[in-house]
Write a structure and sequence with these properties.
Elements lengths: L30 E5 L7 E7 L2 E12 L12 E8 L14 H15 L10 E11 L4 H15 L10 E7 L2 E4 L3 H6 L2 E8 L4 E5 L2 E2 L3 H35 L7
Parallel strand pairs: 4-5
Antiparallel strand pairs: 1-2, 2-3, 3-5, 6-7, 6-8, 8-9, 8-10
Helix pairs in contact: 2-4
Bound molecules: adenosine-5'-diphosphate (ADP).
Adenosine-5'-diphosphate binds next to helix 2, helix 3 and strand 8.
Length: 252
Amino acid sequence: MGSVGAKEVPQLLNEAGRRIDGRGLEDLRALKIEAGILNRADGSAYVEWGDNKVMAAVYGPREVHPRHLQQNTKAIVQCRYNMAAFSVDERKRPGLDRRSQEISKVISEAFESVLFVEEYPRTSIDVYIEVLQANAGTRCAGIVAASVALADAGIPMVDLIPAVAVGKIAGKIALDLKKEEDNYGEADLPMALVPRSGRLVLLQMEGHMSRPELEQALDLGVKGCLKIYEVQKEALRARYAVRSTEAPEVAA
Ligand code: ADP
């Protein structure tokens, strides 16, 4: 937000109301989701969203590690969000930093609210999110990928969770910020929605907005989430279509 030193602030919105990549204020970046691409994991998904590339893998319900985290009445959801050292231009220290730990925690809580955890006491549902290439909105891309991976693993859940960040750039509310917009804009508001109930299961904000702007941002975010939800469902349908055309096993 704002620039320091010699770096020039890019013009985030031109006279025609177009953003730096040509999008309008209510447009999403291109989104592609593929389900079931890792053989080892119980469920997996790969997401390309603008310049973000994110992989999610799910294991479980399975034995809890470390053991003392086990809960007698429900499964625990352990999400690990990690940004690869090569995912950003700047030098990033490999491994889990404070930011990754915080994102892992809020994503775990979002999924715990839609998974039927009481059905699987003393187990763990492990969700790994690896950001291979980052360009803002990676926690949302991680949630979108992990939802599809959980469904691909056949783990019962209330609903898939679409997610998107809404922000404020050049005084206007805009959907799905890319990196320059996130860096030089006035606000960034990632959110995750349970479409079936209309409940928000993640909502964070950096920067500042007025209350009417916040309401406009929430409306725009929900609209964006519903579009993403369709792409998630389509990825699972495509996965199912592949499975059902595979040659049936011959009985012995
Ligand atoms: P999100 O990716 O969910 O928007 P942030 O708002 O924290 O999360 O980050 C915005 C963007 O800033 C990231 O997507 C990434 O492109 C970049 N970024 C985040 N952390 C780092 C880092 N440690 N080094 C370089 N770039 C980073």
